[in-house]
Specification:
about 220 residues; Nuclear Transport Factor 2, Chain: A; 2 domains; single chain; three-stranded antiparallel sheet; about 60% helix
Length: about 220
């Protein structure tokens, strides 16, 4: 690789990393407790919701749909979705002449046909979720974080490109502990980066896709 090419890749790696680092740190700090959000909400919330007949028969989807539409006479079903950790089916409906984007939403307890409360976590967890999702800026904030995710992918790819010539001179994962502090820190940086490259790419790419969920869902509707 020519020196000019290496400089170009080095510039790309440095600035894509620097620009995205602060926001990626925020995503890491807020994302860690969100991984355990269900467990933390069980501890923090004093009265978690329970289905009315937890050991009873589950209503069929037709019965759930009828229960949801009964609360909005004249509307027609748009789609249904399912909560992952409770027996609740979310019925979304709309009037035939309703303007685009206007829907009714009813979470139905599948054990009784009654309306279940909306999923709401502890205020601290809700704050972390909103900060992690869009920084309280709505769709623009979500798309901005998606751009930071793209910069992460660029930083990882450019780092791998720069590490390839480095591996020709030294064994993989070498840390030159007897060298100057700057060299040691560079080696630690290279080591940590190359052993986490697959995880970083998965996090970056899937994070970018998640930030596009709202426009994708709006297009699908």
């Amino acid at each position: 690789m020519h020196a000019r090419t290496i400089r170009a890749w080095s510039w790309t790696h440095k600035w894509s990393s620097l620009v995205s680092t602060l926001f990626l740190l925020m995503l890491c700090i807020t994302g860690l407790p969100l991984v355990f959000s269900h467990e933390l909400n069980e501890v923090l919330l004093h009265e978690p919701w329970e289905p009315k007949n937890p050991h009873g028969r589950l209503l069929s989807l037709d019965e759930v749909l009828a229960a949801g539409l009964a609360r909005h006479p004249g509307e027609v079903p748009a789609f249904m979705s399912f909560d992952e950790d409770r027996p609740v089916v979310n019925v979304t409906s709309r009037a035939p002449d309703a303007p685009a984007g206007k829907y009714s939403f009813e979470p139905i307890d599948r054990t009784s046909g009654e309306v279940a409360p909306l999923v709401a976590g502890h205020p601290v967890m809700e704050f972390l979720l909103q900060l992690h999702t869009d920084m309280f800026l709505g769709l623009p904030g979500m798309l901005f974080l998606g751009a930071m995710g793209l910069l992460l992918v660029v930083a990882v790819v450019s780092g791998v490109v720069l590490y390839a010539p480095f591996m020709r001179r030294l064994p993989f994962g070498t840390v030159r502990v007897k060298k100057a502090a700057r060299t040691r820190w560079l080696d630690y940086h290279n080591l940590l980066g190359v052993v986490t490259v697959a995880w970083l790419l998965v996090v970056g790419v899937t994070g970018v896709v998640n930030t596009l969920a709202t426009p994708i869902l709006a297009y699908w509707k």
